């Protein structure tokens, strides 16, 4: 998938040209949300949402601003726990285990379900330490050599190794925006998660950096279940196999990306992807 | 002359000028063909009032400065003054007493000479205050005349008044520079005098501190070795106090910002502010009355031989407690300045809260925290009352916290509240110590403020 | 990648997790104990002061019954100056009357321990109400220092039986001492009061406020609204920031070297004290004033400028009134700090023994914290309680001021 080709193609075609993965049926259901609602205090931000997330698939969440995409995404690795007023009802399962059950450990859950944020947020440490942070706190590496290996592997997978291998001790904040975002992705995969959640990972980046990240997402897909929130329908069409359209806290439509973009069943979806609001 | 008289005079004349000028402006306004003049009548009024009041007050300030000397000259020229001692403390105290008697502040005093001198004092003061008043009236009148000559329908009174207001504001902001400058000049001047008698090397590197304010004759430089004071100051303020304040303040801030529920925070923060608002004399009393004896008893019980009841430990501990809220609020601010994204990033990787705090938040907030600690140290080493009340005046060079130690501020107070005359090296030494203290705290504050500012900007 | 081997799902990971949670609990406990420690220190401090201080508001007093008609005392009817009355009564032998009556009521041994100045209290009451001379009256009069400490079971072992005996007969008791709030310093802890120091504090604060507030506000206005961005402005800023952090004792050195040289006869006067503290308070007011002025949104200035107001009018008609609550909050906080300040005043001589409350800005005076410092140096046991009582008074004032500042902040805090 090359940017130049798709830049002026209609979204529907783009979605179909991405049909390669489309034909393959999902191998394994990784996460499943059933009847999930999220509240901020008394305000309902997500209303009764059901979604399945599949292994080796990219699932895209689209919808107008404020419809609750981030809120739902953050429910998937319990980042909402950090907001005192937030409350989640319904069940969300990871490999069949309810992640909000009392037996589920948040720390372990978040290690298994990694997250990349809208704005790159490297820690004010060296590039090396940024990547090594996760393995260190989780005790995943024994000895310096193993840690070095993890750092190199993660940076390679994130496509950043060649650019930074000579300056691993430089501060992570000294990188360019796109590099920082790839650093954050590398940081997330360094702990070997099973699911990666990405909240508008490209919104702060220019087109070239965006293309790199998209390529990266496509590469990573083979090993992880990926969920990506995006404002760009082109992006959703390009990288995802499944798409969910949210509106005002409701899940309006969820299905094959090509279906959503070529023949949506709902009028609201149709209106949104043709740009009538949003 | 009591300061009330010129003040009342200035206010009275100013008010009169204000009213007259306003009335005059109103007549302009009524006479004007379209009922408009260049500035509102009230600006005319203020213009006149300022021209009267400002020169008057300036004059009285100047006169107050010089009339004292004139009165003194008059008194010294009087026949009663011939029997005064030539110079020295006694002469000064007689003169001060005579002035007090003449002003009615004191009844008949201890010195007969003073009583005799009171009469010339009274005469001189009456005479010069009369002169001052008359000249003041003339000046006020001249100001009024000048202002009134310029009042015209097309006179831009507002611009003039505003220009003066701006000048006033500028002058007010210069007071800060003047103060800093005053401090520097005073300290440098006295320090130079001091170094004329004791060599800087003896002062800065000597290890014997044993000044004698009553000594006469040759100055022994080896009495003024300030190393024990510097050490005591650092030991109490920068070591013991910080050992208490840094961990407690940091942990309090961390707990309050990261763990405590909002309700707890809303109670504990004001409580810490109260702790910060308690005057240091109260802490000093607490240290001297409760903590110091307790420490000595505990040390005795633990078998220490001869622990001091004015131990460095007592002063340092209490000072540390005093600084806790300060460190805590600096750390609180610094941690709060770290973007939420850092915290989220770490938590999203499965870090526990304390891992996030220790490995991400605190390192990210470190410059701010270091700056805060530097400010705290500068506060601790400049703190006076706690050490005056709880530490000793004996200069000991020791690393045993149970021993008594003295600090720079204790010695400044001791030297300046003693009996030494103004140009005795013991008195001057206090200013030299003050100079060192000023420079050190200045450097600490300056660097700390820069570090903190840089840090804040980095996350903006 | 098969999930079964995912490093985050191994038993080892879960074992480490247990340890990490233990560390988490420890860390949290440490944080909590730091807070609790600070709070306990605060409570301990307040408790010590209160427990001691309550005693300071009381004093041991002996009951003396005086049968006036027998004594031949008289005061002419009509208004009379207090001092004249005292003189007259003393001439008529009031002192001896009190002494005699004390012996009657308390016995010779007890009468010895009526405070030497007690008869003045009797004179005061007669002056207030001469009609008591017509009958019998009983007075509670301060004891001597020795008996007071014996009564407090604190030294003076020899006198303790006497104290016990008198107390059992209801002739000796600790009474609330209103006079503590109206008298000035004295050498006898039974007779001291804090009004002198309090008044000194009030006068000193008056001078401080009068100087620091206008100068501080004007400087803040200039720096925030008019100052060009140049080196001079930078220097002013730097010096204000540094003055706010300079140790207070340095201001004492400045006051001593400058103010006392200019006004040598006003040593220990509130005027000089106030001037010195004003230099210290001014930067605080400037800094908080600038923040308050900065918080006034530019739209208000633009609006006023747009209707043709001059820059000075904009500031004095619009910006200053809006910023005033914030400025006042900062001022009160600065004043509270000045009120508790001792060190600089120590150097400019406000540590004098002042037995009569100052009546003007140039009288000899001392201030509350200084009084605390001076009393804390006294060896007499009686002064310990008095010191704590004075501390309570000081803390109440500071609490009131800070409370007012917090109230102002909350009441007028505007979100633009
Ligand atoms: N911490 C919070 N407290 C209260 N309400 C919140 C909070 N975070 C989000 N909301 C509200 O929840 C709703 C959904 O917000 P969310 O951030 O999930 O939207 P979004 O779809 O991600 O929007 P965007 O595309 O702009 O990122 C919004 O109405 C928002 O105002
Ligand atoms: Mg969002």
Automatic annotation (TrEMBL), chain B:
UniProt keywords, alphabetically: Cell inner membrane, Cell membrane, Membrane, Phosphate transport, Transmembrane, Transmembrane helix, Transport
Cell membrane recorded as keyword: yes
TM region positions: 44-63, 130-149, 164-185, 229-250, 271-292, 312-339, 360-381, 428-452
Predominant place of localization: membrane
Superkingdom, taxonomy of origin: Bacteria
Bilayer disposition of the protein: Multi-pass membrane protein
Compartments (UniProt record): Cell inner membrane; Cell membrane
Pfam families hit by this protein: BPD_transp_1, DUF3708
Domain ABC transmembrane type-1: 231-448
Xref: InterPro entries: MetI-like, MetI-like_sf, Phosphate_PstC, PstC_N
Family per record: Belongs to the binding-protein-dependent transport system permease family. CysTW subfamily.
Function: Part of the binding-protein-dependent transport system for phosphate; probably responsible for the translocation of the substrate across the membrane.
NCBIfam families: phosphate_pstC
Annotated protein name in UniProt: Phosphate transport system permease protein
Biological source species: Aurantiacibacter sediminis
Lineage: Bacteria, Pseudomonadati, Pseudomonadota, Alphaproteobacteria, Sphingomonadales
Automatic annotation (TrEMBL), chain C:
Record Gene3D superfamilies: MetI-like
Domain ABC transmembrane type-1 residues, every copy: 198-405
Positions of transmembrane segments: 27-47, 202-223, 243-263, 269-293, 314-336, 389-408
InterPro entries: DUF3333, MetI-like, MetI-like_sf, Phosphate_PstA
A Pfam family: BPD_transp_1
NCBIfam families: 3a0107s02c (TIGR00974)
Protein name: Phosphate transport system permease protein PstA
Gene coding for it: pstA
């Amino acid at each position: 998938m090359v940017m130049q080709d798709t830049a002026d193609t209609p979204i529907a075609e783009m979605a179909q040209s991405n049909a390669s993965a489309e034909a393959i049926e999902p191998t394994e259901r990784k996460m499943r949300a059933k009847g999930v609602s999220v509240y901020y205090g008394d305000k309902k931000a997500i209303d009764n949402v059901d979604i399945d997330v599949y292994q080796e698939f990219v699932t895209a969440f689209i919808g107008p601003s404020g419809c609750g995409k981030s809120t739902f995404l953050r429910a998937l690795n319990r980042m909402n726990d950090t907001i005192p007023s937030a409350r989640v009802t319904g069940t969300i399962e990871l490999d069949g285990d309810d992640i909000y059950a009392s037996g589920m450990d948040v720390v372990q859950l978040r290690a298994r379900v990694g997250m990349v944020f809208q704005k790159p947020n490297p820690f004010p440490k060296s590039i090396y330490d940024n990547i090594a942070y996760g393995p260190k706190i989780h005790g995943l590496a024994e000895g310096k050599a193993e840690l070095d290996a993890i750092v190199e592997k993660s940076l390679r997978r994130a496509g950043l190794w060649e650019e930074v291998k000579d300056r691993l001790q430089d501060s992570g904040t000294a990188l360019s925006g796109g590099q920082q975002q790839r650093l954050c992705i590398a940081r997330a995969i360094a702990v070997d998660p099973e699911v990666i959640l990405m909240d508008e990972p490209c919104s702060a980046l220019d087109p070239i950096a965006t293309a790199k990240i998209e390529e990266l997402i496509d590469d990573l897909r083979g090993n992880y279940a990926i969920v990506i929130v995006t404002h760009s329908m082109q992006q959703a069409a390009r990288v995802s196999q499944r798409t969910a359209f949210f509106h005002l806290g409701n899940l309006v439509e969820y299905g094959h990306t090509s279906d959503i973009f070529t023949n949506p069943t709902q009028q609201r979806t149709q209106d949104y992807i043709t740009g009538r609001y949003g | 002359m009591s300061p009330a008289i010129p003040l009342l005079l200035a206010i009275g004349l100013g008010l009169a000028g204000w009213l007259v000028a306003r009335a005059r402006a109103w007549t302009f306004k009524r006479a004007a063909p379209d009922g408009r003049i260049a500035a509102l009548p009230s600006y005319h009024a203020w213009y006149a009032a300022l021209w009267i009041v400002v020169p008057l007050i300036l004059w009285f300030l100047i006169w107050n400065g010089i009339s004292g000397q004139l009165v003194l000259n008059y008194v010294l020229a009087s026949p009663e003054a011939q029997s005064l001692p030539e110079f020295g403390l006694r002469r000064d105290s007689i003169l001060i007493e005579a002035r007090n008697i003449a002003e009615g502040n004191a009844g008949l005093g201890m010195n007969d000479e003073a009583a005799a001198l009171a009469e010339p004092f009274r005469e001189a003061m009456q005479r010069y205050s009369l002169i001052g008043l008359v000249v003041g009236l003339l000046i006020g009148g001249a100001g009024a005349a000048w202002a009134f000559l310029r009042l015209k329908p097309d006179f831009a009174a507002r611009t003039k008044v505003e220009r003066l207001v701006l000048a006033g504001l500028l002058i007010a902001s210069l007071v800060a520079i003047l103060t800093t400058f005053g401090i520097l000049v005073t300290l440098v001047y006295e320090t130079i005098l001091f170094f004329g008698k004791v060599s800087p090397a003896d002062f800065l590197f000597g290890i014997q501190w044993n000044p004698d304010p009553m000594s006469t004759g040759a100055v022994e430089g080896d009495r003024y070795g300030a190393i024990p004071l510097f050490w005591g100051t650092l030991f109490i303020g920068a070591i013991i106090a910080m050992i208490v304040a840094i961990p407690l303040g940091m942990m309090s801030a961390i707990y309050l910002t990261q763990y405590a529920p909002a309700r707890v925070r809303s109670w504990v923060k004001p409580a810490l502010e109260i702790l910060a608002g308690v005057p240091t004399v109260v802490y000093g009393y607490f240290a001297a009355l409760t903590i110091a004896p307790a420490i000595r008893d505990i040390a005795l019980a633990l078998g220490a031989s001869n622990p001091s009841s004015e131990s460095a430990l007592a002063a340092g501990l209490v000072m540390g407690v005093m600084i806790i809220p300060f460190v805590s609020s600096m750390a609180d601010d610094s941690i709060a300045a770290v973007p939420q994204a850092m915290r989220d990033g770490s938590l999203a990787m499965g870090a526990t809260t304390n891992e996030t705090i220790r490995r991400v938040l605190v390192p990210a907030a470190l410059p701010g925290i270091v700056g805060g600690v530097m400010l705290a140290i500068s506060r601790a080493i400049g703190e006076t009352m706690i050490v005056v009340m709880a530490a000793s005046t004996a200069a000991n060079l020791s690393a045993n916290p149970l021993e008594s130690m003295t600090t720079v501020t204790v010695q400044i107070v001791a030297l300046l509240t003693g009996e030494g005359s103004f140009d005795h090296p013991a008195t001057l030494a206090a200013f030299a110590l003050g100079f060192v203290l000023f420079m050190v705290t200045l450097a600490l504050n300056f660097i700390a403020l820069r570090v903190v500012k840089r840090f804040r900007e980095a996350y903006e | 990648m098969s999930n079964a081997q995912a490093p985050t799902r191994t038993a080892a990971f879960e074992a480490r997790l247990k340890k990490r949670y233990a560390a988490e609990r420890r860390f949290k406990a440490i944080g909590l104990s730091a807070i609790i420690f600070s709070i306990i220190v605060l409570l301990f401090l307040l408790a010590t002061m209160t427990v001691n201080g309550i005693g300071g508001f009381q004093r041991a007093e002996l009951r003396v019954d005086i049968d006036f008609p027998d004594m031949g005392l008289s005061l002419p009817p009509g208004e009379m100056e207090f001092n004249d009355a005292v003189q007259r009564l003393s001439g008529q032998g009031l002192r001896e009357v009190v002494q005699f009556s004390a012996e009657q009521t308390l016995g010779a041994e007890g009468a010895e321990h009526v405070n030497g100045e007690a008869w003045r209290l009797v004179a005061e009451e007669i002056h207030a109400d001469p009609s008591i001379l017509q009958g019998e009256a009983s007075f509670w009069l301060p004891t001597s220092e020795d008996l007071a400490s014996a009564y407090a079971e604190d030294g003076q072992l020899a006198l303790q039986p006497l104290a016990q005996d008198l107390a059992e007969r209801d002739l000796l008791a600790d009474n609330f001492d209103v006079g503590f709030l109206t008298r000035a310093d004295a050498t006898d802890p039974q007779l001291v009061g804090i009004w002198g120091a309090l008044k000194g504090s009030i006068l000193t604060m008056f001078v401080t406020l009068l100087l620091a507030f206008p100068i501080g506000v004007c400087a803040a206005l200039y720096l925030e609204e008019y100052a060009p961005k140049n080196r001079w402005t930078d220097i002013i800023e730097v010096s204000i920031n540094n003055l706010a952090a300079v140790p207070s004792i340095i201001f004492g050195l400045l006051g001593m070297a400058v103010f006392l040289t200019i006004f040598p006869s006003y040593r220990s006067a509130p005027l000089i004290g106030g001037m010195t503290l004003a230099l210290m308070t001014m930067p605080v007011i400037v800094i908080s004033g600038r923040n308050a002025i900065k918080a006034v949104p530019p739209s208000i200035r633009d609006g006023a400028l747009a209707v043709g107001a001059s820059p000075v009018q904009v500031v004095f008609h619009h910006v200053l009134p809006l910023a005033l609550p914030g400025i006042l909050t900062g001022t009160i906080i600065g004043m509270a700090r000045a009120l508790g300040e001792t060190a600089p005043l120590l150097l400019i001589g406000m540590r004098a023994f002042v037995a009569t409350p100052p009546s003007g800005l140039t009288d000899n005076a001392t201030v509350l914290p200084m009084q605390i410092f001076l009393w804390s140096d006294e060896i007499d046991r009686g002064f310990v309680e008095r010191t704590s009582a004075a501390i309570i008074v000081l803390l109440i004032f500071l609490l009131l001021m800070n409370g007012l500042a917090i109230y102002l902040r909350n009441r007028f805090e505007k979100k633009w």
